[in-house]
């Protein structure tokens, strides 16, 4: 399948995914007379290679609209800095020159890479933003319709390793210890952008809001009119595997101030010889991760939810669950691969599930 067609299909799939996920969040620009609040819904906007939607709840519609504008400005800024595929992004500059010289980056990129390293250590290397060479290899494999050879995997793996990133905190610069390394923030940048967008809304006077980028969400404060809590539907990977549709969600999460991120093999993948391979790769083996059909993380910040959902998708279900279980304020809902699609979760996850 050619790349443009694949991207078009991914985008269509994501629209369905987003629709399925947020079906339950009320939309429209409407007044809530009794408590004098208005909620404004941005609708879907294409950004960061996916679709984003922002809902702002404020005292008046002008404030809510300004909050939406401010949050999209933040999201676009993150995209400009961290886009792996745009040659003029900061990440592309780092990937081109990082072995030759220390590349000075923005505070945002520096902090995101620092946070990535923290999650790499925490997950024993399952999460690793230096997976770029492996991600590229799987994309070329798709174009050639042939899985990578052991030699190709070995060659790409030799350029992967967060321990080969050299950070200078004073300069806020990054350098690569090995030639050919590439940083890919695809597993964490959306979370960072969501947190920045939420900050912008809060600064702009919103009393509540929701930011959703490609199925990762954070909500805060007052929910939209007619609701007493934010209700987020989780897509059923058993259904999503075959057809992206707006069928009944697997479950509904009831959230107040929380972020939720789902990593799964069903909304982004490469297809080789008719078989789907997850877009998440195990940095140790170089193979695409097949341990779980989906991993949902619920925690206070979107950056943590984003990185942890990608990390746990690489880990075995036992190790992934054990990692999240020992993190205060973080919960996980895992779905095992087909054909079982068994749901397992941390002890504290139940309180978020609507029964
Ligand atoms: P997510 O959808 O948040 O799970 O992120 C998946 C994206 O993260 C992929 O498309 C890659 O760009 C990147 N990625 C893949 N494998 C890893 C990994 N093991 N650690 C960190 N990022 C990864
Ligand atoms: Mg992620």
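^ structure tokens above, recovered residues below v
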């Amino acid at each position: 399948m050619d790349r443009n067609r694949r991207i078009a299909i991914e985008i269509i799939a994501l629209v369905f995914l987003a629709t399925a996920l947020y079906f339950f969040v009320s939309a429209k620009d409407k007044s809530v007379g009794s408590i004098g609040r208005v909620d404004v819904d941005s609708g879907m906007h294409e950004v960061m290679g996916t679709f984003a939607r922002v809902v702002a709840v404020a005292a008046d519609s002008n404030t809510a609209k300004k909050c939406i504008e401010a949050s999209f400005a933040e999201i676009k800024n993150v995209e400009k800095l961290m886009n792996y595929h745009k040659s003029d992004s900061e990440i592309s500059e780092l990937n081109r020159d990082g072995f030759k010289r220390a590349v000075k980056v923005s505070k945002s990129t520096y902090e995101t890479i620092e946070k990535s390293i923290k999650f790499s250590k925490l997950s024993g290397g399952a999460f690793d933003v230096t997976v770029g060479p492996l991600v590229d290899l799987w994309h070329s494999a798709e174009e050639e319709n042939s899985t990578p050879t052991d030699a190709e995997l070995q060659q790409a793996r030799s350029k992967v390793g967060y321990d080969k990133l050299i950070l200078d905190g004073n300069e806020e610069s990054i350098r690569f210890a090995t030639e050919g390394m590439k940083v890919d923030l695809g597993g964490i940048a959306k979370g960072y952008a969501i947190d920045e967008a939420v900050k912008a809304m809060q600064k702009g006077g919103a009393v509540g809001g929701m930011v959703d980028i490609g199925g990762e969400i954070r909500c805060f404060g007052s929910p939209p009119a007619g609701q007493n809590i934010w209700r987020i539907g989780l897509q059923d990977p058993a259904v999503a595997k075959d057809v992206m549709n707006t069928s009944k969600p697997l479950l509904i999460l009831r959230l107040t101030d929380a972020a939720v991120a789902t990593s799964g093999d069903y909304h982004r993948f490469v297809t080789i010889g008719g078989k789907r391979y997850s877009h998440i790769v195990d940095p140790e083996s170089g193979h695409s991760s097949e341990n779980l059909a989906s991993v949902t993380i619920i925690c206070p910040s979107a950056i943590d939810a984003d990185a942890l959902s990608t990390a746990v998708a690489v880990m075995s279900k036992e190790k992934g669950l054990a990692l999240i279980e020992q993190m205060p304020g973080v919960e996980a809902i895992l779905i095992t691969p087909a054909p079982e699609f068994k749901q397992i979760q941390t002890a504290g996850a139940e309180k978020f599930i609507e029964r």
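The pocket of magnesium ion (ligand 2) is lined by residues 187-188, 261, 263, 306-307, 309-310 (CB under 6 Å).
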